[in-house]
Specification:
3 domains; 44% helix; 491 residues; Endonuclease, Chain A; 16-stranded mixed sheet; two-stranded parallel sheet
């Protein structure tokens, strides 16, 4: 019996290799015609299939399928309430009735209106913003705010590792649970795959409610390598929220020798913008945990704010459940609004053609464009694809830098010292189209200038990429760039 099965398997393999071209053609037809996709993405997958026959199609099944037409992401519980707030603000803008404390922000009304229309991003103007660029400072601030919780703590991270960073937060959470505070925690199944099942069970036994976004099948088999929840949100009593690039893990406080110092950007927000983040968490939790948090009215009561902030903010979410690329388009509008300068920090710089053209046009029009990426890769293909785009930016007259003091993970765009955007989304196609992301667009000279001051400090620890040196790069680097660039639509 076993001998018969073996012979049949060998025969099948021989047939497969004899007809490899035919099989590849059939699989190519599947990729081209069965789903409507961007031509660049189709060509990238065909390239994979050409160089890795058969196996490449397996990768396509894991990475390339478009699930946006399915109804797996339907979360519309408070749609009417959101639309009412959006329509009211649209009416004020169209009648030119909206006034800013800072008159310089009047020029961004079209940007605000676009985000209202496209992303239903309500503008709130009573926010206070604290900026953290160091992991130890961020987690100390997070622990301190958690200590003040009275009702609930909602935690959402792409990566949660069971290490010293988590243990410190866990001690706080256990104390708060004993005081009657309800704690919910949502993690991404792929991002947090190194944390063992027994660790999550132990965490549940502590009284923390745990939800997993897109869990693995059969233990560790992740059928969806795309469509990951890349958001990092903590909401405390609907009053204070944290948002940015830091995950929970030792590397994010500089304790990993591979990366060294971890330079990131994270925000602590107090004010009405927190409600938007509370809603965002609830929608993700409802999908992952199969619970309806919108039935709990106390989660959305308007709290008393202590810092009396006056900063206008729009919270913008996007993901594969959206018909539009809201965060990408917000970046695009910001770039087009710039008159003096644009500063960008991103660990992965793989913009699509529209963003590339906008940055090239800005640079050629005399706008100072400065872009900073890490000097070391955590994903080699992504790094060399980013480096290839640096060349295109240099040719247009932009200034490009690699950060040398460890690993740069900040996701930040600032415009003219007036408006800034910070959050979880990288300047890459994956964040634009495939991941669930959330950003804050901040209409404040004070906050934006603080972010730009941090950028200027980073320049002291960065190396400029000069066009002449870039043109003399080795054949090996050119080859890495070209291969990575061709694969950039699926990286």
């Amino acid at each position: 019996m076993l001998e018969t099965i073996w012979k049949m398997s060998v025969t099948a393999l021989i047939w497969l290799f004899d007809h490899l071209v035919l099989v590849n053609m059939v699989l190519s037809v599947v990729i081209i015609f069965f789903q409507r996709r961007r031509p660049a993405t189709v060509w990238a997958w065909l390239l994979v299939l050409y160089f890795i026959p058969i196996l490449g199609f397996g990768l396509y099944l894991l990475l390339g399928q478009d699930h946006r037409k399915t109804r797996m992401f339907r979360t519309k519980e408070i749609e009417e309430e959101l639309k009412y707030a959006v329509r009211k603000q649209e009416e004020s803008l169209s009648r030119n009735q909206m006034r800013f404390r800072d008159e310089q922000m009047q020029q961004f009304q079209s940007l605000i209106l676009y985000n209202l229309n496209a992303a239903e991003a309500v503008l709130t103007d009573n926010n206070d913003v604290q900026i953290y660029t160091d992991g130890l400072e961020k987690f100390d601030a997070l622990a301190a705010e958690m200590e003040r919780a009275e009702k609930y703590i909602h935690i959402q991270y792409y990566i949660i590792r069971n290490d010293a960073v988590w243990q410190k937060l866990e001690e706080v959470l256990v104390r708060k649970i004993q005081q009657g505070v309800r704690v919910r925690m949502l993690y991404d199944g792929m991002g947090s795959r190194s944390t063992k099942k027994k660790d999550w069970e132990r965490i549940r036994q502590l009284g923390i409610e745990v939800g997993e976004f897109f869990p693995a099948l059969l233990g560790k088999l992740h059928m969806r390598l795309n469509y990951r929840n890349h958001r990092k949100i903590v909401v405390i009593d609907g009053k204070v929220a944290f948002l940015g690039g830091f995950n929970i893990g030792a590397e994010y406080v500089g304790a990993d020798k591979k990366f060294g110092y971890w330079r990131d950007t994270h925000l602590c927000i107090e004010g009405a913008a927190v409600t938007s983040l509370a809603v965002r968490f609830a929608m993700d939790w409802n999908y992952a945990a199969k619970q309806n948090l919108f039935l709990e009215d106390t989660l959305f009561e308007v709290p008393q704010y202590e810092r009396k902030g006056k900063i206008p903010i729009q919270i913008i979410s996007s993901g594969p459940d959206s018909l539009k690329q809201e965060i990408r388009n917000n970046y695009l509008k910001l770039i087009n609004e710039a008159k003096d300068h644009i500063y960008i920090q991103s660990p992965y710089f793989i913009p699509d053609e529209t963003i590339v053209n906008a940055l090239v046009m800005a640079a050629e029009a005399g706008v100072e464009v400065k872009i900073m990426i890490p000097c070391k890769p955590d994903h080699p293909f992504v790094y060399w694809a980013s480096y290839s785009y640096m060349g295109e930016m240099l040719e247009a007259g932009a200034k490009c830098f690699t950060y040398k003091n460890g690993f740069l993970h900040a996701k930040m765009v600032t415009i003219d010292g007036l408006v800034s955007c910070c959050g979880t989304a990288n300047m890459d196609i994956r964040s634009f189209q495939l991941n669930f992301e959330v950003n804050a667009t901040i209409y404040s000279t004070n906050t934006t200038q603080k972010l730009e001051e941090a950028f200027q400090q980073d320049l002291k620890k960065a190396e400029e990429i000069h066009l002449g040196v870039y043109r003399k790069r080795s054949v090996m680097i050119r080859a890495k760039e070209q291969i990575s660039r061709l694969l950039s639509p699926i990286l």
